Please model this.
Amino acid sequence: MPLRYRPPMIPGQFPATRLRRNRRTPWLRAMVRETLLTPASLIWPVFVTEGAEPEPIVTMPGVVRHPVGSLGAVAREAASLGIPAIALFPNTPADRRSADGREALNPDNLVCRAIAELKAATDAVGIMTDVALDPYTTHGHDGLVDAAGRVLNDATVDMLVGQALNQARAGADILAPSDMMDGRVAAIRRALEAEGFADAHIMAYSAKYASGFYGPFRDAVGAAGRLTGDKATYQMDPANGREALAEVALDVAEGADSVMVKPGLPYLDVVKAVADRFDLPVFAYCVSGEYAMVEAAVAAGMLVRETVVPEMLTAFRRAGAAGVLTYHAPFVARLLGR
Ligand code: PBG
Model:
C-alpha cells in the first residue's frame, strides 16, 4: 500500500526561492512550523500491581508497576503536566488468572480499584482501560482458547462485553478493546447503550499488528512466560496495509469514537493512511519495544533522549495522529513545559 505521491508544488526557482530563508532563526522556524506537539497529545500508559511497593520492569528501564495507593499521585502528576488521559494495565496475581480470564469480570479486580483511586484524586484526567483477556488468562491469549488451541471469536466477545461493562461501572471514561476479535466494538457499544453508558468513549485498537515490539509489555503485565504460541490468528499481519483500512472502517461503523494504530513508528504509513481517510481522531501506540529501543540506545550513549523522543512523537502528529500513547509521556510533557 505505497502512498500515492503528488509531484511537489515547487514554489519557485533558485535563487528567487531559497527555502533556507524560512529556517534562519528560532522565531522564524516557530512561525512556519506545521505541526505542534503539546502535552494534550499524550496518553500515559500506567502499569498497576497488587504489591505495596513500586516494581521496576527490567525490560522497560525507568518504568515501574505502581501500587494502587500511589495512583493518586500519578493522576495529580498527569494533571499538573497537562496530560489528558492515563491508560491502565494490571499485572494480575497468578492465583487470579484462569483459562477463561473471569477475573476480568470481578468488580473488585485490580483495574477497578485503580480506577477508583484515580477518580478520587482528580477528575481532570481521563481514565482509559484495556478490554482484552490477556492480563487474566493462564495461557496469555487475549481471548478464550478451545481444546485445539484456537482462539474463539464469539465466545470471547461475550466476555469482553462483560469486561467493558465492569470497567464502565467502575468509572472508566475510555474503553479500549485491544483484543482484535471481530465484532467486539458493536457488541460493546450495544451493551453500553443498554446499560445507560451512552457517553462512554470507545477507542478501538483497530489496526493492531502481531508485533515483536510488545515483548517488554508482556513482561510488565506478567504474560510473557505464559503465552503459548503467538497472536497471529487475531492480530494483523505486519505486511498488510489495506486491511488496516478495512478494520478501521468496520470499527467506525460499529460505534468507535476514535481508532488506534499499533505499534507506532514502524506503522506510520498506516497512521497516515487512516488519518487521510477517516474523519474521526486516530491515535497511535508507541509501544513498549519502541520505548525499550530508545532507552537502550540512550543508556549506551548512542542517542540523546531529549532530542529523539520529541522528534519521534512529532512524527506521529505530522502523520495525522491526534495523539500518542507513550511511556515517555511524563518525560516529554515535562520537557515541553520548560
Ligand atoms: C494486550 C495488549 C498488548 C499491548 C497493549 N494491550 C500486548 C499484546 O497484545 O500482546 C501492548 C502494549 C505495548 O507493547 O506497549 N491486549
Q: What stands out?
A: The chain has eleven helices and twelve strands. The pocket of PBG is lined by residues 130, 132, 134, 142, 178-179, 214, 217-218, 231, 287-288 (CB under 6 Å). The mean pLDDT is 96. The chain has one domain: 37-337.
